[in-house]
Each structure stands twice: as structure tokens, then as C-alpha cells.
Amino acid sequence: MSYPCVITIIELTAAFDSHLRGPSFVMEPPSRLEFSNSSGGWLDCSASGSPQPSIDWLSVDGTSVGDVGGVRRVLRNGTLVLLPFPAAAYRQDIHSTIYRCVASNTVGRVISRDVQVRAGKFIDSFNRTRAAQFPPTDGSTCTQTNGKEHHESYQRTKRLTLTRIDNETQTDGL
């Protein structure tokens, strides 16, 4: 006579388990993020699953990353924010490294591809804005006009900073 109860419990367990689903990425971060120290940058990561997965970020050595005052924030929505910083506050372990996004729930976890992060510095606000919007690829040069027939060229160096190429000032790497 105890069989109906056991069947009911098994049926309930099967019904509950059928609603469980491991995490899968809805938005996986890109493989590269290059940003200006004056603008900062961010990486979005989101996942679906049942129950809803939590999002964490890992550093290159596999340890979980968290907030670093005035430099890096991990938001509840899964976004990793690299805050604007003065050139003197550059940290290779934060600004030139690899991150991975991890989505996990009680069913399992998925890890994103490596995200190579690199920060650079720029000379002034016009150059920062234009270079951030239209950065050249490695080893190439691009020329931009600000509407007054003033041309500026930028070339990316091996240190991934943009160098202004004209008769004025040039930037150095961080």
C-alpha cells in the first residue's frame, strides 16, 4: 500500500527534474577588449538556464575576480567594468590580462572563451574619442579628419597604444 506514495514522489521528482537546465550563454564576451585609460571599458556576459545561472569572472590563473577599488567592478548583472584610470594607476594584472566569464547553476557550469584585455593611453580628449571609435588594427595606420581639414594619423604599436603621427606630440606606451 505504500507504492502509490512512492510513485507519487517519483513522479514529482521527474516533473521537477524536467524543468532543470544547465547554463548556456545568451551573451558571451568578445575575444578581445581594447580601451583607453580615460574611457575605461566593460565586458558583458549573460546566460540562461533553470535555475537562473549566476555569473562570475575568472582571472588568467583561474581565480575568481572581484571589485578592486577605483579600478575594477563586477556588477550583479554579470558585467565586468574596467574603470577609467590615470596612466600612473596602470596594473598589468588588471589592464593587460585574460579574463573568462563563468555561468553556473545547480545543474552545471559553462566557461567562456578567453577575453584578452588591453588598456592604452591617448594624448587629449579629441584623440581619445576618435581613436577609441576608429582604432587601427595592429601594424596599420589610419588617418582621421576633425572637420577642419586637420588630419591626424595613428599607428598601433606592439604595446597596443595608439601613437599620433604628425608634427605634434607622440604618446609613449603605458
TrEMBL record:
Name the UniProt record assigns to this protein: Ig-like domain-containing protein
Highest classification ranks of the organism: Eukaryota, Metazoa, Ecdysozoa, Arthropoda, Hexapoda
Gene3D superfamilies noted in UniProt: Immunoglobulins (2.60.40.10)
Record-annotated Ig-like domain positions: 23-112
Coiled coil: none
SUPFAM superfamilies: Immunoglobulin
Region of interest called Disordered, as start-end residue ranges on this chain: 134-156
Source superkingdom: Eukaryota
